[in-house]
């Protein structure tokens, strides 16, 4: 039987109850556990604050300061316990080091295995300590988020601003794993040395002299994974995975893991990644020739904005119905997508011989209606096991980047002209014919190889067991918590507590329900998340302006042929992966993500400013350099932005039709629609004014996003 508390009482006691998980696991701090149980007295005091706020008799400022003091107290206890455990672990490793040295001096090989197991046991102890810190870091984030949501304060802004950057910050001790690196190094290099000694190689290989050398021990791999999760200082693979913005629950249940293992099928995942690649090729293969195709059909060159943007317009709607369709099936929407894309590309190619701009636009609309990127994201989120999800997410981003580069490159190779019967094949129609053939081949491969997942989807999953970690998650999301220490006296609970238990059970079910409407999804967005979605809109707008009008601008100012435009766009696309390598491996390990975010926004703004045609003549170095700065900065910004979004969004947005991936897709697609519409409307001013008239809105949006980011900077934690 559990006793439930609500409101700030639950928030106040959460950190200490997470501590209790580790205390009981050690089996040695029952006195401390009893003291934690007595903290309910303080919880009642905070509960009275909640009641007084509701009736308007308590001062908000006093509650804010008092709650800060309570949270400071709990974080201090976390940090002191952490330091105590680190000291004990260091002493243990020091003793093992002395035994290791004696073993080497005596050349006693019989005790090597025993010493290796002792180091592994120390590694397991470190893993428990890392889990302790991770649980508390998640708890602190959710405490701050829940306080803001429940009371309407900007408590997170105040608390993080005053605590995170203080020279004696204890909050930083929780989020920055101080001292763990040295412990990991001690365990790792001693295990490697013992393994080398056991193999009788006779030579000493230091992990410090050769960083690439490491002992392939499961304990070390587990510790490294735990440290990466805790610190968010991720490698390239993890950074790419976050770039994909595959929303996932923080603490999946065992039943979900088992279900995912049953649903996973490698060939089906590969087909989803192939769909992503082909769609990105389909999007960008027509960009170098869109203006010439419009001229061939009797329209203005700037109509290329409508031609390119019509695909994005249709994608706004297709993302929603494909996301809803994926609740029931994955194969059928993918088959439908392939058929629609085959028809769309065929119509696009036939428009030349039919001499109809309407057929051209209808073809591109069909291509947008076939956009299955929501399916691709959802499949990775719902059908790939957690241990493989980051690799699959990285594959999604890599496939997108490769398709973005291959599209213009293929357009460069299709510089030929011939006729078969009455059908014309030239640089304008060949992209359509080629993609129609590609989607036909893909459809056959899909029908033969794709396996429909049969296990129940996430949306309908109701876990049968709730772990301690999940209880903490439900508690913070819904304002309830359950003590982890059961007592015989709990049987004598009154009727009010029974009612609270019923409420908590309903809350536990509510947290697993997916969002059912766009209105509910919008209500779950905090101000900082809304700002991040606006930043995503801004960067997609800037990128689309650079890409979509490139053929018109370069043709007007530099008289570039199609092949040169295609090479330029392909080179821009090829920068995606190298840039993510730099950001994922280095920048996010040196700087905070919010710092990289703001710096990237400023660089996008600088790139836009440098693009303006102010002085004559407008040179190739100015255009190429400014476009490169804008595009690369936007790529950096996209990865960091989606990484922050994946942490800040509500866990309810990881499931259902209106998930976080759909919201980000819609924001980016709307940005492309607006950008392409801006290009077309600016075309009425003439090609000489096209560049400046499209860059001005981009500059205003960029400046607005920088201001909005500065206003919410302290909450991006």
From TrEMBL:
InterPro entries: MFS, MFS_Domain-Containing_Protein, MFS_trans_sf, SPX_dom, SPXM_SPX_plant. Residues 1-161 form the SPX domain. Keywords: Membrane, Signal, Transmembrane, Transmembrane helix. The keyword Nucleus does not apply. It is a multi-pass membrane protein. It is found in: Membrane. Residues 1-30 form the signal peptide. GO terms for cellular component: membrane. The keyword Membrane applies. Coiled coil: none annotated. GO terms for molecular function: transmembrane transporter activity. The chain crosses the membrane at residues 269-287, 299-322, 334-351, 357-375, 396-418, 430-448, 533-559, 565-584, 596-615, 695-716. CDD domains: SPX-MFS_plant. Belongs to the major facilitator superfamily. This is SPX domain-containing protein. It comes from Lithocarpus litseifolius.
